[in-house]
Every structure is written in structure tokens, then in C-alpha cells.
Write a structure and sequence with these properties.
The protein has about 170 residues and is mainly alpha-helical. It starts with a helix and ends in a 7-residue tail after the last helix. The relative contact order is 0.09. This is DUF2384 domain-containing protein.
Amino acid sequence: MPRDRLLAAVGATTDTDVLFSSLREAAAIGAEIEPDKPDPLTEAFLRGSEMKREMLKAEGGAISAQQLAGHLGITAQGLGRKRERNQVFWLDVGDGYVYPAFQIGKNGLLPGIREVLDAFTVDDPWMRVNFMLTGDQRLGGKRPIDQLRKGKIEEVVTAAAAYGEHGAA
């Protein structure tokens, strides 16, 4: 392994960072070997995977069911029921579920979380989290999570209800 790649691997904060870096390098090497056969699907998959990894790290990261359940004063099974009823943000990470920390308030869930979840017309959990962490034109380019923290529940609910629709806002 070249020295610069070895140093990058050693300096990575997690094993996942090493894996993504290696996959990116492998895709680049593969493109050099077969320049007439670029693989845009692989590149798109890697970009999507990197976006998911960044979402998992954003705003306090993702926490376990036990951690969120403890904060909410319920059992992990109770949290599972909340997940099934669409009352908390969650992400399927392959071997189980994690919960974005951004939804935590001082005394339970951040006010407005349930209302926002009820308003969504999209079912994909990753898209829902992306909505919360990305500027939205319906909110003047501001992130919904920031607006929710300011108490602007109604505005965020309206933006969530329109999220995923095509056309003008």
C-alpha cells in the first residue's frame, strides 16, 4: 500500500472511514484499469453511502435504542413501538436501528418531532433525516432542525408535508 494511503487509513477516525476511503480508491483504480468502462452506478452508490455516513455523524450522531429509550424513560421495546408508529426518527443500518440524536430535547423528544413525522408523505427514513439536516427553500434555505429548535413547528410541519413533491414551492 502506498505510504499516503497507509497514513490516511491510520489517521481515520473509524473503521467505516477506512472502508469508504478504500472503496473510493478501488473505484478510482478500477476506472484507470478500464477507462472505456466507467461505472457511474458504483460512483453514485459510493456517494450515497458517504452521504448516509455523514448523516449518521451529524448533530450529535446516532444513538442506540437503549440510549434513546433511557432518555425518554421507556424500555427499548417501548421505543420499538414508537418507531413502528412513526413517532421517532430512526435509521436502519443493516444490523439494527439507530436513532438520530438531533431529535432529543431537554425533557424527551424535541417539541414538534411527532408533528413533523406525521406530516411527511415520504416513507424513507434516510430521506426524512436528510430533510431535517439540509436547508429547505420553504424555510428560506434554513435547516428544518434549526427552525424546530427555534419553536417554528408549524413552518417545519408545512415544509415536511411538501417534502418530496415535484414542482414549485
